[in-house]
Structures are given as C-alpha cells and as structure tokens.
Amino acid sequence: MSFSTRRQIIKQTALASGSFFIGKSLISCGKKTDDVRVAVVGFRGRGVDHIKSFQNLSGVRIVALCDVNKTLLEKQTGELKKQGVEVKPYQDIRKLLESKEVDVVSIATPNHWHSLASIWAMQAGKDVYVEKPVSHNVWEGRQLVNAARKYKRIAQTGSQCRSSHALRDAVAWVQAGNLGKIQIARGLCYKRRASIGKMKEPLQVPPEIDLDLWFGPAAKEPIHRRKLEYDWHWQWPYGNGDLGNQGVHQMDIARWFLGEDQIAPQAWSVGGRLGYEDDGETPNTQIIYQTYKTAPLIFEVRGLPSKKDAPDSKDDKLMDKFMGADIGCVIHCEGGYVVVPGYSEAIAYDKTGAEIKSWRGSDDHFENFIKAVKSRKREDLNADILEGHISAAICHTGNISYRLGEKKSVEEIKTIMESQTGAAETFERMVQHLAANGIDLKATPLTMGPMLQFDPKTEKVVGNEAAAKLMTREYRAPFVVPEIA
Fold it and tell me: Which structural domains are found in the chain, ordered by start?
C-alpha cells in the first residue's frame, strides 16, 4: 500500500472517530528543511507567548495557527503576515493534525482540552509542548504519559520553573542535606482574584467562535459567566481553580524539593469561595494537604487581599506574604528554610533567619524543548510530560477532596487537624486572613473535604466511589480521550 493511500484511509477513519494515529512520524515525510515546524493551538492569552518564544529560536518556524475563534485566528495570522511570516490557519485541530507540514504542536487551550489535544497530536506523529496543568483530571493525565511513551514522542509541560538552573541547584543543595531533613514543603498562591459576576441569563457566544469545538470533551451546556475567556478557570467542567492554574507551578516546585515521583497516598483539602457570590465554583481560599513519606506538602490558595476593602490593585502590599513569599514556596527544614519567591530564584536561611546562600537565573524552556525534539532524547527535557502529570494530579486529588467536602465549623476542623504536621498552624493563619476580610465563618462555614486514600502506583482511589468518579470524567463524543496501554 502506498503512503498516500494509507494516509487517506487513516484520515477517513480519524474523521469518523475523532481520533488520530499514524504509526510513523510525519517529521521526515516530504520535509525540505531542517527547521522544526511549529503549530500553536490557542492564543487568546498564553499562546501569544508561545508564538513569540518559538519565533525567537533559530531553526524553528511557526507554520500554522489554530483557534476556535475565527476572528482571532484571522487577526493573529495577519499580524504574522505583516512580519513576513506566512502561516496556515485552522479553526479545527483535527484538520491541523492531518498536515504533514507540522512537526510540533504547542498547546495553550483551556485546561479541559490539554490532554486530548496532546494525545491526538502524538497519535498524528507530532511532538508536543502543552501548558500546565497537562490534564483536567488524573486519569487523562496518565493516558497522556502513556501516549508519549507508546508513540515515542517528545512531550514537554509548560512548567518553566524546571528550566531554572537556580532552582535546580537549590533543590540539589537541600536534598544533599545542607539544612537537615525537610519537615514541610509549602506552596503558596496568594493572588488577587475578583468576583467574575453573576449572570441571570446564559452567555451569548459570538458566531465567530465554534462553540462545539470550544466545549470539546466537556458537556455542551449553557455557559453562566460574563465572558467565555479566562474565567472558565473558576468552573469545574473546564478549569481547576487557582490550585490548577497558578498553583500547579508552585506545587511542582514543592514536590521537586521533596523528590517524590508519584501522587501522595493521602490528600485532603479545606476552603471555600468566600467574600462574594458569583458564577465561579472553585475555591478562592483553600488549603491542600498531601501526606508524602518524605514530608507533608501543604499548599495555600488565597484570592482575597490582605484586608477587607483593599483597592483592586496590582500592588503586592495588598496581598498577604508568608516568610517573604506570596506566589512561591517555603521549604522548612531542620536547620533552616529555603524561600522560593518567584520562578527563578531561591534563598536559604538558617534557623535564626540569617541568609546563608542564594541562587538566581533560568534557561529558556522553549529552547530546551526544541533541543530534545532535535536529539530525540526525552532525557534532554527539563519538564518531561511525566513531571507535568504528577504535579497536575496532586492538584486534582486535592480538589476532589474539596468537592466531596461538607460544611464544618472552625472548631470541628481544628479537631480534625490536630495530629497532622503543620496543618493546625496553616489553618489558623487562614482563619485570621478571612477575619481580616470580614468573613463570618459561622454564617458562611468552610468546606472540609475527606482524607482520601490513594494507591500511588496505580493512581486509583481506595475505598471511595464518589472520589473514584472524579478521577476522570464523562467525555462527549467524538472528543473522547482514549485509553492507552
């Protein structure tokens, strides 16, 4: 059978089933240059950075763009044309994946599309750069890893902190025992998040957006929020709250310090969406607790300012800080602690608070990805898809506990936390933060989730059917994530 005939059969099957597989990479088929040819999917926000980052790399060409918004697609295609860059536009990712002129697919869609788009791309012989979180749920994240291994694709997650040589060195220094044993690895996401408003009627989506494609794997239901873009982060069918948005970066760093390469055997969460009533569903105030063997990983989300009626401003003085960080990590050790206040900096302190060592600097995360694409060695990746999966998965397990939670009083929650390292102190600070924002926890109680049990090897829930259901989702045909052995 000729390649063209075989490809036509595969194309027809793919269009019928909504899935793609080409056993041999398309990178070598009909290619006339050594340039790595990139298609960017989704560029309302982060995707624009993908375009610019790839354009800055030698030996890389943007050759295609894909977005469900036809107007936005035409605009971005026109912007590149003004720069002398001709790209082919696609509104449907399935059409894009048929192209043999694309080597790499770079994905910056809403979360609920990340795994499916990536798997389809790898089945079509493409390498993948996919934004964090790499999955919308635990099960599909594992299928994504399985796909990368089965189809021998290079797949990097957008956790750019992994390309910081400063953080890499800081992790190695702590793991060498320079501050003694780690007692707690703490992640922080203190990031102002205002109300998204409350709609009386469903959102009217403009005709230039293919809404069927936008929903993809999610159920096609009326959208209750003021805008289609970004605020999907705060609704469960599409997003994962700030834990899976900003927080997955800091979750990843905290887990990196711990040296843990599986999901934790236990996880629980407490929190609420407090301070306003809107169409958002995810908590804006949350504690997530992962019981790793090395030490507990504790994560804190705060979307409210440091005090009530603080003006809506980017001034970081209006947000709380903990030991010098607001969006960062604190690694508590026997002999001191390390603060990671950003994406590419770490400072070590002794027990008295005196600085003893610091690290700064980062390499280009996109350049690292392209290096691995050319070498065909996933070991060259700073953030292989497996790392992205595990860090996303522990965000998901924390959110599952929250979603299964019940309203409880402060006193009841304190009793539950008494025996768990660092939990009571973390919770007390949360209560004080909410009091400063005028939140009456008797009138609007917090939601306390159950302590969930997991088998880290199989990534299955132990003894909780409701939690097991939330490890995956019901997919809408033909946008179904395939199970990959």
Answer: 3-161 (3.40.50.720), 163-360+387-469 (3.30.360.10)
